[in-house]
Amino acid sequence: MNFIKARLIFIISVLAIISFIFGCSGKQPSISPMVAPGKIISESGKMTLGIMYFDNHTMSSDHDSLDRLRMGIVGALITELSKVEKLVIVERTKIDELRNEIEMQWKGDGFDQQTVQKFGKLLGAQALCFGQFTDLPDTIVSGGCSMPFFKRTSGKDEMRIDARIVVVETGAIIKAEEITGQKKELFKLIKSLGLKIADRLETDLGVTITKADRISIQKQDTQYSTVSMVKFEEAREQEQMAVITLEEAQKLEDTLREAKELEAQRLFDDAKRKYEEALAISPEYLEAKRAIERLGKTM
Predict the structure, then answer these.
(1) In a 3-state reduction of DSSP, which class is residue 62?
(2) Which of 10, 46, 236, 255 lies 20 to 30 Å (CA to CA) from residue 295?
(3) Residue 151 bridge partners (DSSP)
(4) 80, containing H or E segment
(5) Mind listing the pLDDT tens digit for each residue in 165-177?
(6) Is pTM beyond 0.70 here?
(7) Which is higher by pLDDT, 46 or 147?
C-alpha cells in the first residue's frame, strides 16, 4: 500500500514539474518578432534590399581561392533578384565602395542592430541579406588491406549556401534559406536560392512576387561554375571595374584549361596562342601573362 502511494506521489510530482516547465517556456517565444510589411514597403509597393558579403566557411583546400565567392555570390544574387519588379536591389558598385568598411565591421551572425541600421542607412536599404557558403573538408582515405594506400581528397564537389534577411528598422531576422548542390552548377544554386529569398520576402514582408518574376529568375540565361565565377572576380579585382561577363569568364576558364593541357603536352606554340586568347578576354589577367612569359623562356 505504501509502495503504491509513493508511486502516485512520484507521478504527480513529475507531471507538476513538466507543467511548470512548459508553462514558463510558453511565456517566452523564441521566434524573433516580425514587423508589419507596410512598415518597410514604400508607397509604390517596392522594398529596397541590400545584399551584403557572404562569409567563406569552406573547409577544403580550396578555401583561399574560393574567398572571391564572398562577393561573387552577391553579384549573382543582385542579378537574379533585380528581375523582381517590386524589389529595388542596391547596386553592386555601391557595395564595392563600402567594401573595406563592411569587411571591418560586418561579422555575419555576429551583427548587432546598430551595425544593421548603419549599413541600412548607408545603402538606403530597408532590409539586408547576408549569408555564408561552405563545402566539405579534406579527408584521408585508404585503399584497404588488399591494396593499402592513402590519399588526400578535396571533399565532395558540393557547396552549401545559406542566406538570411534582416529588417533594418527592427533588427528582426527572417528565417534562413539554404541550398546545396554541385560547385560546377553554381548558377543553378544561385537561381534556386534567389527564388527562395524572393518567396521568403513575399511570405514574411509582403513583397509581391509575380509568376513573371519567378519565370524570369528561373530562365537559364546565365551559365557559370564556381571556377568561372572565381575567375570573373579575380579579373574584376585586377582591372578595378573590368568589363567582363560571366559568360566570358566561362570562356576564360575553358581557354586556360586548354592552354594548360597543351603546355603539359609540350605543344608550346599552341599553348601560347591559347594564353593570348585568355588575355584577349581579360587583358590584365596575371596567370595568362605569367604563362606567356614562362613559355617565352622555354621556346
Answers:
(1) coil
(2) 236
(3) 141
(4) helix 69-81
(5) 999 988 888 888 9
(6) no
(7) 46
Q: Give which of 106, 41, 96, 98 is closest to 74, Cα–Cα.
A: 96
Q: Which long-range contacts (CB under 8 A, 24 or more apart) does 192-195 make?
A: 193/77, 193/161, 193/163, 194/77, 194/80, 194/81
Q: What is the spatial distance between Cα 232 and Cα 206, in angstroms, rounded to a whole number?
A: 35
CA 181 – CA 183 distance, rounded (Å): 7
Cα 148 → chain centroid: 39
The confidence score (pLDDT) of residue 80 equals 92
Give how far Cα 153 sits from Cα of 48, 66, 226, Å.
Answer: 43, 17, 18
Taking only the tens place, the pLDDT of each residue in 209-265 is: 999 999 999 887 766 678 888 877 777 776 554 456 666 777 887 888 899 889 888
In the block, residue with C-alpha cell 534582416? 166
Is residue 200 helix, strand or coil? helix
Cell for 293?
A: 612569359
Domain boundaries, the chain: 37-222, 228-298
**Strands of 57-126, DSSP E:** 87-89
Q: Which residues pair with 87 in a beta bridge?
A: 47
Q: How many residues does the chain have?
A: 299
CATH number corresponding to 37-222? 3.40.50.10610
Closest CA to 199 of 211, 182, 181, 188: 211
